[in-house]
Amino acid sequence: MLDKLLHTPEGVRDIYNHECLKKLTLQERIEGVLHRFGYQDIQTPTFEYYEVFNHERGTVDTKEMYKFFDRDSNILVLRPDITPSIARSVAKYYKSVTLPLRFCYTGSTFRNNESLQGKLKEVTQQGAELIGDDSSQADAEMIVFAIECLLEAGLNEFQIDIGQVEFFKGIVEEAGLDKQTEEQLRLLIDHKNFFGIEDLLSKHDMSKEHKEMFLKITELFGSIEVLQQAKEITTNERAIKALERLEKVYEFLCYYGVEEFVSFDLGMINQLNYYTGIIFRGYTYGTGVSIVDGGRYDSLLSQFGKDSPAVGFAIVVDELMLALNRQNIEIETIYTNTLILFKEALTKTAIQLTQHLRGQGLKIELQKLNDNGTLEDYIQYGKQKHVGGIIYINEEETVKIIDLETNNTTEAHLSDLIGKEQ
């Protein structure tokens, strides 16, 4: 029983000590970029009514949600995605606003996914949403935004794959597929399941040209030339417009000078069905899943009563941490804590010094020397906790100052530290 109490459920974990500091440092860097782009913070509840995320809105599958009841028998859900929460909030508080709104956020999301390869069920996401701008320039801004965040995190080798939901919908429209077949095909294409696509298409009555068109989609990935290849397999107006939009976005990305980080993948069809236009994912070495997901969702807010286009993205911080670690990219952290260690007889002096230094804005840990402890024990303790230094009070007038980074020890008068006679 005690063993169970000490363990966390599958899919969640404790983050502590140096790893926790690294994660917070990384989040702080990304927040810096989010704010530099002029986005304002928003916080939404960790759990909401089930209806905010139900499958009809195009969010995650119901089976992947953590659901529970409140005392009034309402079904509540731990948020599996933050974008619908922000859409609900914006529709409520900014219903009559017509000019663009820019929000950024940091928060946990929860998905009751299958327990495969240690996939986490609670992750931290940081992201941004631009609401009220339907331009291709806004699409490009989101991609540039994600790239800047990854560069700020210290990542150098990564790629943003860009797709277009409307291209797929256009050729589905051209082939005249029903909704059920469209959904099956979408999943198979998204998983690059060529044989599955072939098998599905063989069961439907359609022209050879249309079958070849769907099989070709999985091969449409790479540089900007892919868009021209895609134009050659369809004449559907909707699909052609989607490709022209991607060309325009690429033009803006070139203005920003970030084209080296992007490629196109027209077989990428995101599992979140609320996306209506451009979609993108970020990949790097050391993690088998995307570290960035984003796209345009022009119809989501209207489901909450505000008719407004929107585009956004989210970085999965935990996956980004994993990738940085496996690529041996260090997240520089600064340890500024000082440990004041004192003998019991000098408690009053230690408290006075602690209060004085905290009043100067320093981060101070106050610790009485254990009767059986030695200074060396606390030096090791401080190093394990990445404390910057120790001020050891073992006499009335003088203290030892130990720099834990250099191991240098000096002595000083208490009056020099407090700035007055003791």
UniProtKB/TrEMBL annotation:
GO terms for biological process: histidyl-tRNA aminoacylation; L-histidine biosynthetic process. Its main location: cytoplasm. One of its GO terms (molecular function) is catalytic activity, acting on a protein. L-histidine binds at residues 81-83, 111, 125, 129, 274-275. It is found in: Cytoplasm. It holds the Pfam family tRNA-synt_His. Residues 26-324 form the Aminoacyl-transfer RNA synthetases class-II family profile domain. Transmembrane segments: none annotated. GO terms for cellular component: cytoplasm. The keyword Zinc does not apply. InterPro entries: aa-tRNA-synth_II (IPR006195), aa-tRNA-synth_II/BPL/LPL (IPR045864), HisRS-like_core (IPR041715), HisRS/HisZ (IPR004516), HisZ (IPR004517). Keywords: Amino-acid biosynthesis, Cytoplasm, Glycosyltransferase, Histidine biosynthesis, Transferase. Pathway: Amino-acid biosynthesis; L-histidine biosynthesis; L-histidine from 5-phospho-alpha-D-ribose 1-diphosphate: step 1/9. Heteromultimer composed of HisG and HisZ subunits. Belongs to the class-II aminoacyl-tRNA synthetase family. HisZ subfamily. This function is generally fulfilled by the C-terminal part of HisG, which is missing in some bacteria such as this one. Required for the first step of histidine biosynthesis. May allow the feedback regulation of ATP phosphoribosyltransferase activity by histidine. This is ATP phosphoribosyltransferase regulatory subunit. It comes from Natranaerovirga pectinivora. The gene is hisZ.
